[in-house]
Amino acid sequence: MQVQFSVYVLPVIVSAILSAVVAVVAWRRRPASGATTLAVMMGFVTLWCVGYAFRLVSVDLASKLLWAKFRYFGIVWVPAAWLVFAVRYTGYGRKWLTSWVYALLTIEPAVILVLVWTNEVHYLFWAQTDLVSYGSLTLLETVHGPAFWVHTAYSYILIVAGSLLLSLMLLRSSGLYRRQVLSLLLALLSPLVASVLSIFNLFPVPLDLVPFGFTLAGLALVWGLFRSRLLEVAPVAREVAIEALPVATLILDPRGQIVDLNPAAERLLGLSILEVAGQPVQRALERYPDLVALCRKEGEGEIVLGEGEEQRVFLVRTVVLRDQAGTPVGQLVTLQEITERKRAEEAIRGELRRIRTVAEIARIGASIDEISDLLNRTARLLHNRLEFDHVALYMVDERQAHVILTVLAGAEEPDLSPGRRWRVEEAGAVGRAIRSRRLQWLSEVEAGEEREGPRLSGGRSEIAVPLLAEARVLGVLDVQSRTPAAFNETDVVTLQAVADQLAALIERLRRIRETEQAAYGLEAPADLTARTLWESAFFERDRPLGYRYRGVSVEPVDATYPEAQEACKEGRPVTLTLSSDGDGREKMGALAVPIRFRDQVIGVVNLRFEGEAVPADVVALVEAVSDRLALALENARLLEETRRRAARERLRAEMSARIRASADVDSILRTAVQELSRALRASEGLIRLEVGDGGSGPVSGEEEQV
């Protein structure tokens, strides 16, 4: 056999030596968990490196193929050995390592070995083999077949599975044991990266880089064996090493006596393990009766520790510890601080309450026609749902000189009755809100302090929010309380949102009335419903009736879905579970929410989701958006109607001016028929004077046509 020498051979020889050393040391420590498996695995790695070294020094194709096949005596067993080692070393899933599992793990390597050594018969492993020259070095170049890719995928699955077990142990370990696991993962990293570079031809030289990666792997394992005492000092269970836990932890014996406290518990409770060890929990924790009660039963609960602004909320979990026979041997009690979480939950509840309140007001505004009804229902809603002591709504007169108490909900006052008027400059916080057009917040009024304007007797807090529509003040929303500093930032944001919504609704109702009066000269007939207005204003024009979005773009559509038809018919939200294929294996949830205006359904919002059910909070959110959408559409309809009337008025004025500019009958007729036909885009126009003898017959020639 001809041979060639290259510097590439030296790292491979070093890898083989290091692998053999690790195998020997691991074998000597085989009483340790996983030591035997690691020794066997490193023996296979040694075979791999030796085979590749001979392949590199070989020159002819037959010799290179022989050593390429030989190294697979080591390659095929490494992934399975790595997984078994990870299971044995970490202890996770060790009960699954039965003789049947070992037998199954030998099937794939045995099949691959047969395919490798019989490749010239079927070419399933290497579809093509050839020699290539790289400088003075002759290398073997192969084209991988399907069996190679199956083996590669299988190997990566086993390697990743074993690595996940070690990574989990890394997260749960500390100190010496963390360094041991880290050495194992570092040993895997370099061969794994080298494998990816080689298999996918990401390295310019056609070399198998994995044996080179074993050099770094061997160094990492040697460091782990001799510096971190790998396979010599076994890892300790996390449940025993509670000292490193950031969560306050107590351990009790079966009689309820304290066995141990970790440092976090000592700091939190102000105790020392030297003082309370062996004491009954009720005596040791007599300052914390709520905690004692939770320690006596398995489960979880919440307690509050501290006073005033120093109060902190903790989630207490009590777990009964049992031995292998199921006999209770003690209790593990943990205290996890959840103060920030509780604050966040409270903030979320406040935000949801604000959204629901604003949405409810929008729903009210979309279903009624009278401003007085809107104000009454809004005041009651704020008083009942947000639990404000005193809610009042004031309207401003036309001259912006007086403010009139229109609606009152909550605490009754002799001096506050609907219909009473105040001059704006004498209306206290309400008047200041009107003059400044800004929210007025009185956080804490001194008891007995004299205040002008409408006020709650004994009131200590007040928020007055102006109702603004196009920089014009329509009125004021005023909320008062007898509790000092009763309101917070969330209340301010909520009331501002309610005021904005209320102002928009009041302005909309006014515009509706003005538009209907201008359009018909009197109140709309009783049988003219909101749907009739919409059909005449929108649906008779040349525009799409709907739009659809499918993750890419918005497109106009006229089609509808069954759930949308049902929602329009029933007048309520409809949720369905649909099957995207015939056998029902893929499900999707469908939601249809009607768009309602004045108790009439004018449209529908239709959404579909992956999954079998639409969450209730999604339904509530879409309902709120639907209410807002109805208001926005109605405002748009009113604006279009106003623009059309203005355009008609301009057209009428222009036509009248042109007709009046004509000096004789003939010119007037010509101008009139021409301007009317052009303006209205008529295909033909005719004006004829029907004036006969005695008013009964036409006059010849008095006719114009275009």
Describe the structure.
The structure is a single chain. With 706 residues, the protein is of the alpha+beta class. The chain folds into five domains: 9-226, Up-down Bundle (Rhopdopsin 7-helix transmembrane proteins); 243-337, PAS domain (Beta-Lactamase, 2-Layer Sandwich), CATH 3.30.450.20; 348-520, Beta-Lactamase; 562-646, GAF domain (Beta-Lactamase, 2-Layer Sandwich); 662-705, no CATH class. It contains 22 helices and 20 strands. The longest helix is centred in the C-terminal third of the chain and has 46 residues, at 616-661. The relative contact order is 0.04.
Largest sheet: 6 strands, antiparallel
Helix content: 40-55%
Strand percent estimate: 15-25%
Radius of gyration over C-alpha positions, nearest whole angstrom: 43 Å
Strand tally is 20
Q: Give the CA-CA distance, first to last residue.
A: 108 Å
Residue-averaged pLDDT, rounded? 80
Shape: flat
- In the CATH classification, which architecture of the largest domain applies? Up-down Bundle
Give the low-pLDDT segments: 236-240, 521-528, 694-702
Strand order within the widest beta sheet: 10-9-8-13-12-11
In CATH, the topology of the largest domain is named Rhopdopsin 7-helix transmembrane proteins
Structural category is: alpha+beta
